[in-house]
Amino acid sequence: MTGxxxxxxSFGTVDGPGIRFVVFMQGCPMRCKFCxxxxxxxxxxxxxxxxxxxxxKKVSSYRNYFSGGGGCTVSGGEPLMQPxxxxxxxxxxxxxxxxxxxxxxxxxxxxxxxVCVRKHDEVLKNCNLVLLDIKHIRDDKHFGLCGQSSKNPxxxxxxxxxxxxxxxxxxxxxxxxxxxxxxxxxxxxxxxKSLKTVKKVEVLPYHTMGKxxxxxxxxEYPLKDVRAATWGEVEPMRRYLCx
Length: 243
Prior knowledge:
The protein is of the alpha/beta class.
C-alpha cells in the first residue's frame, strides 16, 4: 500500500504525548482559514509516494528517542483521506510496539456509509490516541470557517466515544471568530462532556506563522486583519471547557 506524503518531522513535541515522529499526509477536503499547512491541501501535487512498510521502517529508526510516551503521529492535510494506507501503517507500527496517534478533523467520516465507517474503523483498530480538531461547534460558523459542515466531525467524535477510543479535543482560538458569545463555548463544553473517552482538552492560540506560506503559494491570506491570540487568553477557555 502506497501513500501520498507531504513531509516528515522527526522530533515533534506538539502532536500528541512525548517526542513523536510525525507523518504529514497530502490532501485535505477542508479549507480552514487559519490553516498553517496550505501546501498539504492539493491531493494531486506536492507529495512523494511511500509504501507503508517504508514509512514504518523510517519511524522505527527513531524509536530510541520516543520518550514520554512518544511514538508516531499521522497528520496532514487530512490523513483519513487515505485510510487504507494509514490503517496498514498503524498495523505495522502496532506490531512493532510503537505508540500510534491520529491527528484528524473527522471531516471524512460519513456515519451513513458502511464502507466509510469500515475503512475508518480499520484505522482505529491499531490507533492508541486520536487528536480531534474541533473547528467550531456551530454548523454555520464551522462552514464559514472551513468550507465544510460540522456534522461529520461531531459524528466521528461520538463514534470514537462509542468505540472507547481515547481522544484529545483540540480547538484553535481565533479572536472574533471562534467563540463570539458565552453560549457558543457553553455548547462546546456540553458536547465535550457528552463524550466518554476525552482524556485532554487543548485550546491553541491562533498564530500568523502561515502567512509566508500563503504568499509563496500565491494564495490570499484570509485572516490578514485578525490578530494573533495569546496563551493568556486561551487558558481560561480551556479550563472552562474542562469544568
